[in-house]
Amino acid sequence: MGLRVQAALAGRGFAVELDVADGEQVAVLGPNGSGKSTLLGILAGTLRPDHGRATLDDTVLFDLDARPHRWRPPHARGVALLAQEALLFPHLSVLDNVAFGPRVAGRSRSESRALAERWLDEVDAIEFAGRRPGQLSGGQAQRVAIARALAAEPRLLLLDEPMAALDISVAPLLRRVLRRVLAGRTTMIVTHDLMDALLLSERMIVLEQGGVVEAGPTGAVLQHPRAHFTAHIAGLNLVTGVLDHGAVRDPSGALLSGVRPDADGLAEGEPAAAAFSPADVSIHAAPPGGSPRNVWDATVTELEPRGDLIRVRADDRHGHVLAADVTPQSVAELDLYPGREVTCAVKAAAVTIYPI
Amino acid sequence: MGLRVQAALAGRGFAVELDVADGEQVAVLGPNGSGKSTLLGILAGTLRPDHGRATLDDTVLFDLDARPHRWRPPHARGVALLAQEALLFPHLSVLDNVAFGPRVAGRSRSESRALAERWLDEVDAIEFAGRRPGQLSGGQAQRVAIARALAAEPRLLLLDEPMAALDISVAPLLRRVLRRVLAGRTTMIVTHDLMDALLLSERMIVLEQGGVVEAGPTGAVLQHPRAHFTAHIAGLNLVTGVLDHGAVRDPSGALLSGVRPDADGLAEGEPAAAAFSPADVSIHAAPPGGSPRNVWDATVTELEPRGDLIRVRADDRHGHVLAADVTPQSVAELDLYPGREVTCAVKAAAVTIYPI
Amino acid sequence: SSPSPGGTDAKAVTVYAAASMKTTFTALGKSFESSHPGVTVTFNFAGSQTLAEQITQGAPADAFASANDANMKTVTDAGLASGDAKLYATNQLTIAVPPDNPAKIGAFADLAKPGIKLVVCAPAVPCGAATVKVEQATGVTLKPVSEEQAVTDVLSKVQAREADAGLVYKTDVKSAGDTVKGIDFPESAKAINNNSIVALTKGPQAALGQQFVDLVLSAEGQKVLADAGFGKPAA
Amino acid sequence: MSTTEANPAPASRTGGRADYSGLPRWLYVPAAAGALFVLLPLVAMVLRMDWTRFGELITSESSVAALELSLRTSVSATLACLVLGVPLALALARRHFPGRDLVRSIVLLPLVLPPVVGGIALLYTFGRRGLLGGTLDVLGIPVAFTTTAVVIAQTFVALPFLVVSLEGTLRTVGQRYELVAATLGARPSTVLRRVTLPLLLPGLASATVLSFARALGEFGATVTFAGSLQGVTRTLPLEIYLQRVDDPDAAIALSLVLVGVAVVVMLVTNRISQRALTWA
Amino acid sequence: MSTTEANPAPASRTGGRADYSGLPRWLYVPAAAGALFVLLPLVAMVLRMDWTRFGELITSESSVAALELSLRTSVSATLACLVLGVPLALALARRHFPGRDLVRSIVLLPLVLPPVVGGIALLYTFGRRGLLGGTLDVLGIPVAFTTTAVVIAQTFVALPFLVVSLEGTLRTVGQRYELVAATLGARPSTVLRRVTLPLLLPGLASATVLSFARALGEFGATVTFAGSLQGVTRTLPLEIYLQRVDDPDAAIALSLVLVGVAVVVMLVTNRISQRALTWA
Ligand SMILES: Nc1ncnc2c1ncn2[C@@H]1O[C@H](COP(=O)(O)OP(=O)(O)OP(=O)(O)O)[C@@H](O)[C@H]1O
Ligand SMILES: Nc1ncnc2c1ncn2[C@@H]1O[C@H](COP(=O)(O)OP(=O)(O)OP(=O)(O)O)[C@@H](O)[C@H]1O
Ligand SMILES: [Mg+2]
Ligand SMILES: [Mg+2]
């Protein structure tokens, strides 16, 4: 049961095959243009793949490999799509927006409204029931849109960056609401945000260039990323290469020492990855003495705020870009600016090595 | 010289008085609706205050206290306004967009284009000169808009959240460009972002509810904030109250111990503030033993991602909201969720006390 | 733009004439031009009512040919005419039917038969006034499906075979060629329509206007009119 | 201890612009000239009117019959325009099909065709000997010289107005809400009824008024195609034309009635569509 | 070691929607009916035409004179509409002044006024005995019954088309770019010339075509106000009206010429405005 898709759309270089179990929440991550919205459009029925087949529970959403083709139109799929913009119907009250799904499914007006009230209550938005969508703030509107999507009782709920348009101050609230209402519902959430993946999903899929490059339980994927995008999202520096005397040697020949917490059977010369957090990277004006085993000379290329810290990106001579998180005070003390030559260091104890 | 404004607009509860020195960059911060855009609109001449007076160098921008009123229309002010959206003229090429200012100022076509090329070069956008604005990405368009504003040779440059609409990945690049080209130019930058204030401005003004609540050198204001908004932006927890035996006692009676790095003449009972970073707050499932002097029981209300860390907000029984930054791993280990009862602690050594 | 229509240095005479005069006056205009070298004749053909309205509003006309007495009176009463208007042609109603006469109309009384789609002019316009007179004289009450605004509207409906019959002027049938067939009826003599013409005083070429009037009244003019089916005015 | 939350209400991001119109002052000269150019003829008409006779003139039997017929036919024609024009505008705005530009140009043609020629063309189509005339006759639907013909003529000239202005609105509104409705389970007919049409309302109102106004003023095609019989086909413009011969005052009085009806309809619609716009 | 950058190119955020039109299938029935309703009369006209005589008919001296006059006057009227209508539309769209709704309604009135009545009103205004007639006479500018009168009549009926469609476009475009231009130092006239008008271009093109088409087809006001003098005031529609009875074929041939001119103008403009729209 659940969702089973296999679809290709040549015009966008898209070819994906995946399953979602009944009641499971899956986060879909990937860089811009990797095909996340394309996947959702194909499932919702607003986009038609060249070939492929999708089933949701026992319903065939489409089967373009069969003769004749089967194509179920959007309104008959039981798939609700919630995009970045709430897109509440401006001519209907909040209550009637939420009652829209039940109404078009054939329920009576009063029954639909009762349902709508229940769902508005569920997303903490019952107080807005009588308002027009134009009178809501962005976060309120997005909550109502969630209620509207859920009230339609979709068998599959698709969320396309539901939090992207929101002020940072309302995102946590919406995340809490989603966490509560999504429990037990088959859901795919497109997101750029690690937090959504962590809090809202059980499994995670990473797309790159129209294909699935990583899939698995969210925690496991984040801890041991295989793709650079995943490492980036997880906020980790990643080096891939082969095992060489307990360290990872990458194609440029650089060697990275680390620890192997899992007593795995990784043998010399086998493919391995080394990951470490930018928070564990220290920056020095001159080479540090003492313990750190991994040290590089590099040139600062970018400074970028990350919460209250500043992420420094530095480029070593081998084309590696290293990320380090430091406090604004350190930036000032070390006089960091793009072009500054620095030394970066990370202790081997902070580097995890695992097979890929 | 420089800019000198004093203006009030009753309809928006706006009343501000401030100076900007010639060639100085000032960051304007403040919560939504605090009047930042109103201030810029009044300076650009798109909004007319009820009364007040503004001079830029030796030009009177407006003087509504004089009889008869003086009002210089937008095009005669030498004030360029760059908003969140680039708003490049869609019917002109990138080059002609940038040449617009010089052209309308009366320069010849070839002279204007030469100037435009110089400015495009300055913002690293010379390669787009022949394109239409529709063919640029958001970050590229914003850089061209900066070149266009600068090519008009404004005596005052107003930037209204120039980075807000941009992808996180292009903001650092644009920030670097701005830092370079703004040097020595009288500029006001509205921003929500600490980073912009730190990197792009020398002084900082904080507006709240239409009035100036804080003003001074950027670093000083951020280190010793007086207003809660400033503390929030600076990523600090702030308690204001009076000095009581070397600690700060707030109106609820809670006492916060800290250090006084400046040997100031602060006397018992005088107004004082205590500030500390969320990074210095630790969270425990049970009361910790050992050194921390400041310990509270509180209830987790929100979890919110801040870069790679997670900001936990917790509410103690006295209506204080405390922010603490912890790693995702800690969130998982401590099983933090909204509603969880925890103990928060901060060492006195991490708390700075100063007079306000 | 030149105030005298039709040319800049050459003289131009402007004649306002009822639309029914289009064919005949155009021919006479050619003849006038050949006998008056350097002179062009320009016509404004429209309903007499429209023309009278335009003339009293100051239109630069040199001569006015009206298809009824009332509109001529409007102009002469306004003191715009040089002398009295002269009757120069009469016109009589006839029944116009499609060439194959599908409704088998033979006489005026047939027009009142049920099921016949008859169109006539509205009583307010000259041909309609004439129709009313004939009805009164014959005691036949017509039941038209439409009372048209102009005689041309009646004719075009018969041409389009939309109507089985229409009451129009004899000259209209003649100028419409073989697209319609005319069925004369004696009762039409009860409603003779008078065409009168007069030179105008305020026109830019009043003298030439008078000469055109003279041409219309001359033997040559009368022949052209007779050939087109107009009747001779009673003396 | 507390950290102040940034206010979550999304305020207007660029502030008001009430104090900048950006129009050069000389522009008001041609603008006023344009308004006067239209206004003066109306004033001239009002000045020429003999107001003591106004009431009597507009309440004569033939005038009342014409007004009543005009309102009846114009409303019917407007309804016909809605029934034919709304789907046509939707198809032109939402479907990409070959020859769409050509179809659009053809639909606009009645704008350029002199109404009299339009009337002739309608005769050739719906007349007894016309393209469809035979069929209609067999079906026992007489068209020429009936009130139906008036409605057809008015619809023919008014339809382009509705289609043109509605297509523009449709493109502005876009298709996003319709997609949302579909994923909520609404079938296309439901989407049309519950989303597309309600969202279209303000534009639809002004498009409807434009076509109603054009139908109300229609003269040439009606007189050519439908004829002119009191109470059946003689609409107000035809009555005005006829009255002009006997009694120019009556013609002007009736014209002013026409103008009055139009102004009232436009002002009311303006109000409606502005109210509806508040949620756009 | 490296961390992959997310691709900075801002891609389309919601993906394509090529595969959803959202129109219920039954809708195509009235849409096709609407298109046919307009198309059939044109087809009927083409079918009735005696094509062997077509060339001869449209090249007769009077036809050529009428066509030439029609093009000349319609172009002039369109220019007049632009000169008066663009400022009027700008003022209506950008200034809030008391009575704006009323001004807008009045400007729309020529839409509803039967053209013949419009012609009478124009006579009352610009005729020698009219409101302005005396003044114009003294100034030595005769208006009525000259080619100028034709242009005035055409402008009167065509102006509302331009104003209505332009005002809509102006509201859609908004004022943001004008504000930017002002802060870059452009005075209002410069803003108008270098920003407002270029941005308006696509809408302006279709508005201009609408008013050109209306001017080209104008009949009633012209015949009443300007008269029907060959080469001076007898435009193509008047020529068609005169030819209609004597030689219906000639009338149809000329009508088809009119239709042809209109279709060509519309298709060309469609192309232009779509090209211009690529940067919107
Ligand atoms: N309408 C379209 N026509 C053709 N190609 C398109 C269209 N929309 C998107 N694409 C292309 O298809 C690919 C996948 O796009 P998609 O919108 O699915 O990416 P995404 O993962 O959702 O990206 P983002 O993170 O920017 O939302 C991209 O290469 C994009 O350029
Ligand atoms: N057009 C307007 N008319 C009336 N009041 C307005 C208008 N625009 C904004 N305001 C009000 O004026 C106040 C200041 O608004 P302003 O836009 O200057 O805030 P801001 O500091 O720029 O906020 P933000 O961070 O959201 O951009 C707010 O209370 C707002 O509600
Ligand atoms: Mg996407
Ligand atoms: Mg603002």
The major β-sheet of chain A equals: 6 strands, mixed
> What's the gyration radius of chain D in Å?
24 Å
The computed structural class of chain D is mainly alpha
**Envelope shape of chain A:** globular
What percent of residues of chain D are in strands?
under 5%
The assembly state of the depicted protein chains is heteropentamer
Query: What structural class is derived from the secondary structure elements of chain A?
Result: alpha+beta
Task: Explain the overall architecture.
The complex is a heteropentamer, with 2 copies of chain A (356 residues), 1 copy of chain C (235 residues) and 2 copies of chain D (280 residues). Chain A is α+β, with helices and mostly antiparallel strands. In chain A, 24% of the residues lie in helices and 33% in strands. Chain A has 2 domains: 3-223, P-loop containing nucleotide triphosphate hydrolases (Rossmann fold, 3-Layer(aba) Sandwich); 236-356, OB fold (Dihydrolipoamide Acetyltransferase, E2P), CATH 2.40.50. A 6-stranded mixed beta sheet of chain A has the order 7-8-9-3-10-11, sandwiched between helices. A 5-stranded antiparallel beta sheet of chain A has the order 2-1-4-5-6, covered by helices on one side. In chain A, β17 and β18 (309-316) form a beta hairpin. The longest helix of chain A is centred in the N-terminal third of the chain and has 14 residues, at 109-122. The model of chain A has no long low-confidence stretch (mean pLDDT 84). In chain C, β1 (11-18), α1 and β2 form a beta-alpha-beta unit. The model of chain C is unreliable at 1-8 (pLDDT under 50). Chain D has 2 domains: 1-48, no CATH class; 53-279, MetI-like (MetI-like fold). Chain D is 72% helix and 0% strand. Residues 1-18 of chain D have low confidence and may be disordered. Chains in contact: A-B, A-D, A-E, B-D, B-E, C-D, C-E, D-E. At the D-E interface, α1, α3, α4, α5 and α7 of D face α1, α3, α4, α5 and α7 of E. The complex binds adenosine-5'-triphosphate (2 copies) and magnesium ion (2 copies).
